[in-house]
Amino acid sequence: MAIYDAPHGGRPRGVLEARATTSGIQENQAMIQPGATFKDNLQQLPAIDGVERIDLVDAHGAVVASIENQPGKQGSLAVYQHLKQRFGALDAEAAEHGLAVFAEHTADARERPGAHPNVDRLLAIAAGGAPLSIEVVAVGG
């Protein structure tokens, strides 16, 4: 159960939350407070060193998308790793937070569908699309 002590349901940076899971209580990484720019938000996210890729898996166990650790995708990799650490899976709540983290790229994705596929995925899930599991694959893993 979450306890929010900042305005608008947020928490000050660095405050941890315990989320109930089917296996008990899980302590999650602090939710960042997204700012106006993606660049600033990236600076608040954990490093992606040691991550080879992130696989997004549907309810049937099929990998529906992968985000590789390569130039041009590392920002998305960092956001999705954060969503895994913070929420455990990619559901509507996680998608909404991810859209805030993507900042100006979210507005651009709304205006130009297909230009930002990793943001488009969050928009679809936030709008009621099926949730996905997030699997972080370590280098050499």
What's the helix and strand layout?
Blueprint: E1 17-21, E2 24-28, H1 38-42, E3 51-57, E4 63-68, H2 74-87, E5 89-90, H3 92-102, H4 104-111, H5 117-126, E6 132-138
Antiparallel strand pairs: 1-2, 3-4, 3-6, 5-6
Helix pairs in contact: 2-3, 3-5, 4-5
Task: Note down, in words, how this protein is organized.
The structure is a single chain. With 141 residues, the chain is of the alpha+beta class. It contains 5 helices and 6 strands. It has helices at 38-42, 74-87, 92-102, 104-111, 117-126, and strands at 17-21, 24-28, 51-57, 63-68, 89-90, 132-138. The protein has a 4-stranded antiparallel beta sheet. Strands 1-2 form a two-stranded antiparallel ribbon. α3 (92-102) crosses α5 and α4 (104-111) packs across α5 (117-126). Mean pLDDT is 83; it is low at 1-28.
Mean pLDDT: 83
Please give the alpha-carbon distance between the first and last residues.
33 Å
What proportion of the residues is helical, as a percent range? 25-40%
**Number of beta strands:** 6
Report the β-strand fraction as a percent range.
Answer: 15-25%
Q: Helices and strands: which structural class? A: alpha+beta
The number of helical segments is 5
Record the strand order, biggest sheet: 4-3-6-5
Low-confidence stretches: 1-28
How can the largest sheet be summarized?
4 strands, antiparallel
Run of helices and strands:
EEHEEHEHHHE
**What is the overall silhouette?**
globular
Q: What's the alpha carbon Rg, rounded to whole Å?
A: 15 Å
